[in-house]
Structures are given as structure tokens and as C-alpha cells.
Amino acid sequence: MLMDDDRTFGENIADAVASFGGSWRFIIIFAVTLIVYTLINSLLGRSAWDPYPFILLNLFLSMIAAIQAPIIMMSQNRQAKKDRELAQKTEEEARDTLLKSIEINTECHRIMKLFLLETRRLKQLINTLQEKQ
Q1: Which residues have a Cβ under 8 Å from the Cβ of 37 and sit 6 or more positions away?
Q2: Quick one: which of 41, 58, 40 has its CA closest to 50?
Q3: Short-list 13, 31, 7, CA closest to 67
Q4: What's the pLDDT band for 4 if we cut at 50, 70, 90?
Q5: Given a cut of 50, is residue 1 above it in pLDDT?
Q6: Is there a cis peptide before residue 53, judged by omega within 30 degrees of 0?
Q7: At what angle do helices 9-21 and 55-132 cross, to 10 degrees?
Q8: Are 2 and 86 in contact (CB under 8 A)?
Q9: Can you tell me the distance from the alpha carbon of 18 to that of 56, in angstroms, rounded to the nearest whole number?
Q10: Where are the domains of the chain?
Q11: Which one, out of 3, 107, 127, 131, has a CA that is 20 to 30 A from the CA of 24?
């Protein structure tokens, strides 16, 4: 059974953050937000709440990266575990299929030997009957 069925609340959040954080929607929203933020602060000049070089913005970006990176790593670790479980299940199924294939092949060889034996017996009977006539 794959582990996707019993994800914890934290794993669900990590997956959601990783999914959104790795999307074009996030990139576009984030880029627009950064542009608006820098434009407003640039236009306000000295009276801006975060004038150039945008130290507060750098702090926010660092905090976002510090929080987002481990969450994405948690999601990737969970996905890697899920991939390992899937690979193990696939390997077990392949092994079972191979064993069944070997059994079928062995049975086919046994049937072929019986067929050849019966064919030889039939030929002998035909030869015996032909000699008696």
C-alpha cells in the first residue's frame, strides 16, 4: 500500500506549499508584488517605509526563503519515499510475473515432451499396423 493514504496534516501543508510555490501562478503573483512594492517605495522617495536599497524587502524575501525551502524539502522527501515504495511494489509485481512466466514455460515444455512422446508412440503404432497389413 502506498503511503499517500495516510498523510499527516503537516505533509498536506508541505505538499500544498510546494505545489503553489513551484507554480507559474506563484511566480507571477510574486513578481507583480515585488514590482509594485519597489515602485511604490521608489516613487515615495525619502518618505517611503522601505527606501532604496529595500532592506525590509530583503528581510521579507530571506524569511520567505527560510520558511519555504524546508517545507519544499519535506514535500520532496515524502515524494521520494512514495517513489521508493512504488518502485518496490513494481519490483515485487515484476518478480511475481517472472515466476509465473517461468511456471508457464515449464508447463509448456512438459506438455511439449508429452506431445512428442505421444507422437512417437502414434508413429510406432502406425508402423506396426502397416507392417501387419
Answers
A1: 50, 54, 57
A2: 41
A3: 13
A4: low
A5: no
A6: yes
A7: 100
A8: yes
A9: 25
A10: 8-132
A11: 3
- Rounded Cα gap, residues 33 and 25, in angstroms: 12
Supply the pTM of this predicted model: 0.58
Instruction: Over range 20-38, report the average pLDDT.
Output: 93
What are 39's three cell numbers?
515602485
CA distance 114 to 108: 10
- CA distances (Å), origin 2, targets 28, 60, 89: 34, 38, 9
The grid cell for 49 is: 517605509
- pLDDT one-digit tens code per residue, 60-106: 999 999 998 898 898 889 889 999 999 999 999 999 999 999 999 99
Phi-psi category of residue 45: left, alpha or beta, with phi > 0 → left and psi -120 to 50 → alpha: left
Of 19, 6, 24, 133, the residue nearest 72 (C-alpha): 19
Mean of the pLDDT values across residues 29-35?
95
Work out the mean pLDDT of the chain and round it to a whole number: 91
pLDDT confidence of residue 6 = 79
Give Cβ neighbours of residue 19 (< 8 Å, ≥ 6 apart).
75
